[in-house]
Structures are given as C-alpha cells and as structure tokens.
C-alpha cells in the first residue's frame, strides 16, 4: 500500500534590530502602529528561529476544519494556542489564504482540513531583549506559507505575508525580508496597507556589522506590548515623536541606506534610540530599560565618535537599544577591529570567539583614535557585559531541507 504523502516544511527566520523604533499601537488587535519603523535584518548564521510545521493527516479529527487541533512546541515545551490569541489569528489567516488557493485550483491537496503540528526553536535566549518574538513569529509565517504554497507565483507577496506576521508581533513583519526593511504604518483601519517593504537588500550594503553587547540575558522587566500602550496613554513626548520626528527621520535614514552614508545612518540611529528611551521615561509611571552598563556603552561610543569626527574621520559606530539593557552597535566592516578592541578593553570577556576572525590583536596597545579620552568611562569587570555576539546584516527567511526538521515521522518533536 502506498504511504500517505507527507506535507511538511522547515524554515529559519532572522532577528531584526530597529534603527527607527516601533513603539505604540493605534489598534492593539490588528497590531497597527502609531508610527512607521525601520530595521536591519541580522544574519541567520548567528541568530535565528527554526520552525517545522506538518499537516497531521492521520488523526480522526481531520474531517472538519473547524475541529482541527493544532499543537505548538516552543523550545521543546508544548504551549497552548489560545483561541483568538495572536498565534491563533495568524494560523486562521494563513488557512484562509490556503483555502482561497484551493478553491481556485481544485487539483491542490486540501491541506486546510488537517491539523498542524508546529515545533520552533531559537538559538539564543528567549525574551532576552534580542527580538525573539520577531524571528519566532516570522519563522512560523515563513514555514506555514511554504507548506501552504503561499508564494509569489500563487499571487502572495512577501509583503502580504508580512501583514500576517504583523498580527503575531508587530516587529515580526520586518523579519520577513532581509537587508534594510521599513514597516509602513499605513492609514487604513483594516491594516491592509500596514506592511513591511524592502528598502534595500543586504547585498546593497553588505559591510554593515552588528556587535550585540549582552548586558543581561535575563527576562526583561516591562514587556514591550504592555509598556508601549502605557506610553501611548500617558506620554506627550510620544505625540511629538509621531507627528514631528519619525516621518522625516524615515526619509533621511532610507536615503542614508540607499547612499551607504554611514555618518547619517549613525546620527539617525542613535538619535532615535535616545528618543525611544526618552518617551519611556516620559511614560507614567516611567519605564527604564537602560542600566548603568548600557549608559557606559553610550558614553564610550559617543566619545569614540567625537574623537573620530574631530579628527576628520567621521562616525565609527552607532548604538541602539530595544526594550532592554543590551546594546547593539552597528559598525562598518573596516572599523570592526578597532571598535571591538575598544569594547573588549572597557568590557573584558573571559573568552570571545569572533566568527569573522576580525577580532583585535591580543594586547595591541592601540590608542584607538587621536584625541580619544581614555578616561571617559572606567574599565569594567569581566561579566559587566555577559557576552558579545558579532554578526552582520543578512538575508530573509530560508527554506531548509527535511533533514533539518524538528519533527519526527509521527509529526511529534524529535
Ligand atoms: C522596542 O514587536 O515586541 O523592539 O507588537 O506588541 O509584539 P508587539 O511588540 P514588539 O515591540 C518591539 C519594540 C522594539 C522596537 C522595534 O523593534 O521596532
């Protein structure tokens, strides 16, 4: 007897780190933002979510699509898919898109009749302020859209998929693309025009590296979902940001990316991070994400840039912080050695293996940059920065082979 066909897909999706921050929703169910945002997608060679999804063709409850019992395992633990919750809504939307496809082409297998088993893993700590929800949700959408053949040749664009990812977690919509990605806030009440679009692919400006200084990998204090609505409700500064700052900044930073203009990119990135944390402080009661180590990193980068600009060499690094104390430094490839040397001098590591082998020469007594004030911050103890992840701009979600599946032959986690 012929065995049943296996309908399964496995994909990875990247982390993205915003340089113009999303903070605030005008619709909390559809996840429609109060301002547009822009991010850099980071390489999946270092940070990624991996997801497998399979149609369960053998159980008895498959006859009625309304009765299918989807199951989800995150990092090995089964999670409930809450009725009407974010994941449930994403799955319902993808099923509807597949149903439309099946009704247009009757030769397609009726995959929407089957329950889904989904297993997902991150290769970095969840909720460490490293945008795990963005890569996790976009891996889910990428995997099920692959399984359901929701592809450009079937009339479904990546921006269409980003609209679904957005409803799982706002920032996830930007992880559907590689490179430099804008999330247009849109104006419609139904969210149809609130989608991610590519500003430039990674290949346009491939030498942008990221140094992630993990100050703490503990779960963060105020979750972003709750924090941002408190800001919407109480901050006057947020209104100013939405109306008078972000629209022009989106234009300027998009132009900087198109022109590979690092100075302008760095100026906008740091100003936007500062303003995001200022609106957090302007919230009632105030929200603090930065700690003393975060602020020391800011001072260090600011002094390095000051000395470099004064010496006529332009900006060397741009810091940005999300809803947590970890710093992300964007640096051009040619400056990575210098910036790493500086970071490791002030925030020493027990061990640091550089995947790019661009790390500093041991004990190189460099003076960094002419005029740099070495006393700007004290040299910290080992452990102040728990670890450093060196990565760079990267591509969008990847489809993997079945060998990489997280599910076994029965569709259960391996
Ligand atoms: C500070 O996308 O995690 O990282 O839409 O409620 O899931 P939800 O929020 P989320 O917020 C991210 C906020 C941020 C800024 C950004 O990534 O743009």
TrEMBL record:
UniProt keyword terms in alphabetical order: ATP-binding, Lipid biosynthesis, Lipid metabolism, Lyase, Nucleotide-binding, Steroid biosynthesis, Steroid metabolism, Sterol biosynthesis, Sterol metabolism
Pathway per the UniProt entry: Isoprenoid biosynthesis; isopentenyl diphosphate biosynthesis via mevalonate pathway; isopentenyl diphosphate from (R)-mevalonate: step 3/3
Membrane-crossing segments per the record: none
A cellular component term, taken from the record's GO annotations: cytosol
Gene Ontology MF annotations: ATP binding; diphosphomevalonate decarboxylase activity
InterPro entries, A to Z: GHMP_kinase_C_sf, Mev_decarb, Mev_diP_decarb, MVD-like_N, Mvd1_C, Ribosomal_Su5_D2-typ_SF, Ribsml_uS5_D2-typ_fold_subgr
PANTHER family given in the database record: DIPHOSPHOMEVALONATE DECARBOXYLASE
Protein name: Diphosphomevalonate decarboxylase
């Amino acid at each position: 007897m012929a065995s049943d066909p296996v309908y399964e897909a496995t994909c990875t999706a990247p982390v993205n780190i915003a340089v113009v921050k999303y903070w605030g929703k005008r619709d909390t169910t559809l996840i429609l933002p109060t301002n547009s945002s822009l991010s850099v997608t980071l390489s999946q060679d270092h940070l990624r979510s991996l997801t497998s999804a399979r149609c369960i063709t053998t159980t008895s409850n498959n006859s009625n699509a309304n009765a299918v019992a989807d199951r989800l395992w995150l990092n090995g633990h089964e999670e409930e898919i809450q009725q009407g919750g974010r994941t449930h809504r994403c799955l319902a939307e993808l099923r509807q898109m597949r149903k439309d496809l099946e009704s247009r082409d009757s030769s397609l297998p009726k995959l929407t009749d089957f329950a889904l088993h989904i297993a997902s893993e991150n290769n970095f700590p969840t909720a460490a302020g490293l945008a795990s929800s963005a890569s996790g949700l976009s891996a889910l959408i990428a995997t099920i859209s692959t399984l359901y053949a929701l592809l450009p040749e079937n009339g479904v664009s990546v921006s269409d998929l980003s609209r679904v990812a957005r409803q799982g977690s706002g920032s996830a919509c930007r992880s559907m693309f590689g490179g430099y990605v804008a999330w247009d806030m849109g104006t419609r009440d139904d969210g149809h025009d609130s989608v991610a679009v590519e500003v430039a692919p990674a290949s346009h400006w491939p030498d942008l590296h990221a140094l992630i200084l993990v100050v703490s990998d503990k779960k963060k204090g105020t979750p972003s979902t709750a924090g941002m609505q408190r800001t919407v409700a109480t901050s006057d500064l947020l209104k100013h940001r939405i109306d008078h700052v972000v629209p022009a900044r989106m234009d300027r930073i998009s132009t900087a990316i198109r022109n590979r203009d690092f100075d302008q990119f760095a100026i906008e990135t740091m100003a936007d991070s500062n303003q995001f944390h200022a609106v957090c402080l302007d919230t009632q009661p105030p929200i603090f994400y930065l700690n003393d180590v975060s602020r020391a990193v800011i001072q260090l980068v600011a002094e390095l840039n000051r000395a470099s600009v004064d010496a006529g060499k332009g900006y060397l690094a741009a810091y940005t912080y999300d809803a947590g104390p970890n710093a992300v430094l964007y640096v051009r490839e040619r400056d990575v050695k210098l910036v790493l040397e500086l970071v490791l001098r002030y925030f020493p590591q027990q061990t640091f293996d550089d995947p790019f082998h661009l790390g500093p020469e041991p004990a190189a007594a460099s003076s960094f940059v002419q005029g740099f004030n070495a006393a700007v911050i004290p040299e910290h103890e080992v452990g102040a920065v728990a670890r450093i992840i060196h990565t760079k701009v990267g591509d969008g979600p990847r489809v993997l082979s079945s060998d990489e599946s997280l599910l076994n032959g029965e569709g259960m986690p391996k």
